[in-house]
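Why this split exists: single-chain examples teach little about how molecules sit against one another. For that reason, every record in the complexes split bundles all components of an assembly together and asks for one structure covering all of them. Below is a record exactly as it appears in the raw files.
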Amino acid sequence: MQSTAYGAPINVKGWVRTHRSSKAVDFIALNDGSTIKNIQIVVSPDACQVSCATGAAPGAASGGPQCGDSVVASEALKLITTGACISVVGTLVESPAAGQASEIQADTIEIYGTCASDYPMQKKGQSFEVMRKNAHLRLRTNTFGAVMRIRHNMAIAIHQYFHDHGFFYFHTPLITASDAEGAGQMFQVTTKNLYRLEKDEQGHIIYDDDFFGKMTSLTVSGQLEGELGATALGAIYTFGPTFRAENSNTPRHLAEFWMIEPEVAFIDLNDLMDLEEDFIKYCVRWALDNCKDDLEFLNKMIDKTLIQRLQGVVDTEFVRLPYTKGIEILEQAVRDGHKFEFPVSWGMDLASEHERYLVEEHFRKPVIMTDYPRDIKAFYMKLNPEAPASASGPLCGDRVAAPSGSSSAAPSLGYDSCLAPGPTVQGTDVLFPQIGEIIGGSVREENYDKLLSEITRRNIPMKDMWWYLDTRRYGTCPHGGFGLGFERLILFVTGMQNIRDVIPFPRTPKNADF
Amino acid sequence: MQSTAYGAPINVKGWVRTHRSSKAVDFIALNDGSTIKNIQIVVSPDACQVSCATGAAPGAASGGPQCGDSVVASEALKLITTGACISVVGTLVESPAAGQASEIQADTIEIYGTCASDYPMQKKGQSFEVMRKNAHLRLRTNTFGAVMRIRHNMAIAIHQYFHDHGFFYFHTPLITASDAEGAGQMFQVTTKNLYRLEKDEQGHIIYDDDFFGKMTSLTVSGQLEGELGATALGAIYTFGPTFRAENSNTPRHLAEFWMIEPEVAFIDLNDLMDLEEDFIKYCVRWALDNCKDDLEFLNKMIDKTLIQRLQGVVDTEFVRLPYTKGIEILEQAVRDGHKFEFPVSWGMDLASEHERYLVEEHFRKPVIMTDYPRDIKAFYMKLNPEAPASASGPLCGDRVAAPSGSSSAAPSLGYDSCLAPGPTVQGTDVLFPQIGEIIGGSVREENYDKLLSEITRRNIPMKDMWWYLDTRRYGTCPHGGFGLGFERLILFVTGMQNIRDVIPFPRTPKNADF
């Protein structure tokens, strides 16, 4: 709403959150969606003209209240119920009421739209489940208004960060004919008439007449194409929708979600970890600086430790921990009597309980884990040198002794050994309290021969890989990047518990409403 | 590349554009993708160490040049061909050469990657068609580097504009179960096994076991969901991929493209036209202010009138023209002897030739056309009042006499009549020289009864519309918005002729490469 001096005429438009009548005056809490804070409208029925815009109310067929020329002002006031939309002309005055600086003394009110009596968002304290079924209306509530404004701010922060740091926003395709990334099950995209599927002599469906002349799917990642951008423009980032056709009915999975994938030429693992930490702190700091009212609301209503946790991330130096050391810590915990559901051993993919132990119990701060076993990570990650037979000191990428920008971090771990018992790659995941993995990244294998041998070892079809391999044939360069699930970030920054509540219209198994 | 004082040591990394040897020194033009401008590296072979990074060259199998420990410096220099990637340590010095302020005197060069001799981007003057087949490498050329940097800048400008104006970035879903927008043919999205399609007793394919439990497609527009956002948050914009399964092999169509769709509560047609004009001028001005080097390159190589045309848009007040008056102008042109391929009559959808006549010949400036016949526009556009039988003066929305913010524009048209011979709606398209329609927008019908009757009249299935209609039942409000095809904007701002050349990896019929 506009900022205006006391005593000045003002026109505000918005939706009615509450309307209560006392003896002499009515109070209307009005909100236009731009802020969590309502403006109070004070109406003296005798001194305020109330009119209806043409067709402000749905017709009798829809069961809404009527709003026609025949309605007198005092009657019309009764049409201003929760959910109605009005325009108020009046005077901005200092408010005698606690908790608000100003209010509006109404001279005229025009009703743009009355609200049918079956409005589902009328009552306070709706369950999130009921709200999900009314995702088209939940945006008008305090909680979802706050979440969506924060979501907007995080998107702006992301663009601002990368623009300021010389990254170019790069649009990778969503429809793809390759399945090389292998990150999950894919949705098929087709224009074929499914009632008339022709097959060839081997019984395979013929795709020559499909829109793209071959079988296509929705992408699970823009990274491989992002590398094409980075090895040309230097530094790029994607920020777009990504798809996983996994039948996962959890509070952490969406079939359609937004992902940010920066990719940078001439970067090594230390620089990449610096980038990850700096980037995510920037986003969280942006929220603290720009979303104060909404965060205070969520801190009060959703999660009482939210702001404290956000401030903690901004103020903390992240731990940088080679996987092999992480396993040592977990094994020590087991020896000390800690019970995990899944057994701990080198080579395993960490379960959520292991990540949480490291982040929430052992270090009590965000952890950047690096140098994972090759076989639990993707084919494109850069292989670390293996320890020679005679070696006894640290290796794991040799970043243990002197983590970039945090010379004190390594000694504080209290672990000296790092020699990995098997091949490791330069992966780097950021693990957050409550959320778990919020970022997954790596330095990419820039060596043509090594990359080719890994592609071959994993039986990845070469037909999908020629263009990717070309970047290693024509002026290859060291490079790396990471992926951030946007909704994971929003979960962390808002304190919301279910990923379906941080995107306007969630896509999940059996649900594509709105 | 970093900015450094003359005489200071400097390290630059990038790809070799050219390498030429004279008697005593070698000159390497190096580019890191951040700018159109190369930096010149001056190499005195006797005074410069050249080494190879481990595995800088692809193995013998790929036919690339070799780069091993055995290579001596003078031989290694020969490996630095067009397309190779190198890191140079040296001294920044003032350049004696024309056309560049500074150059680098190289002390050491490390070859990150040699370039195989079949590098397709070696030669200058490749056709755009050849480049499209090498879309993974064309990004390294001057033209595509410039286009992609401008594309990035336009995206940033768009986010900046809306953020500054209080709009929230709003992510509407891409996978949709509704076809209500009706804007074009759709791609089906499915996880069904096409080899085992079960049908019900009526012979219909059963979708209960598809991922979403029903038939789903890729969206053609986020507008309807965007209206849900605007009627809750006040003002939103989308910026995301959009899909059309049209078999259009033209330089103006993509199957997958990016679209921007702002939607605003409490806006009327005049405000909407102001927004369209202000927004697009902001974007073009951003390009002029922030992409000077790239625009100058494109102005020189692609389109000699580019910068002049961009400046023209920024400096010009757009014409605001009711459709009915536009038809009058076209009919007058026919009477004056102008030949159109398609006949002109009220109620027709303007063809490209008609738009171009108005924009490029009659007005010679951008035109915002409004108040179209109802039957050539979408169901959701706000209906104008119809002329009473006795009327003889202007109507067409009554905006003719006083166009917002441009009181002089209307008289200059020289047309007084506007009474439309049939129902019109408050659509507003922006027509640009060379591009044609760059923006399509409208005020939306906020009246429940009128909207319902239009939906019924057009036989749009109600099962898809209940949530959309709900916004008119629960506190309806005047609102409107528009859609801008991002690639159309990039075409205009870069002067490129084919839409496949302004997106990294175009999706068109029979083409989903990379």
